[in-house]
What we know:
With 79 residues, the chain is α/β, with parallel strands linked by helices. 28% of the residues lie in helices and 22% in strands. The longest helix has 15 residues, at 32-46.
Amino acid sequence: MYIEKANIWGGDEHGVPLVSLVIPAMNEAEAIGECIHRAKEAFKEMGIDGEIIISDSSTDGTGGIAASLGAVVVTPQKL
Length: 79
């Protein structure tokens, strides 16, 4: 999709970030913190106002760690 003059750097006029990074996770408590820190650094270095969303189905505390680092955590329903 092509969007002419898209502003991915500063969000839209309502303050909503235009970049969402969605990371699926399953029992990644040991690694999720580093992933989130690196994503935040990349956003900062590029001047992007982005959000990090963790899709979490874990039993090891991955979601809690991600939330404590500012990520939005969603838990998919099991089919």
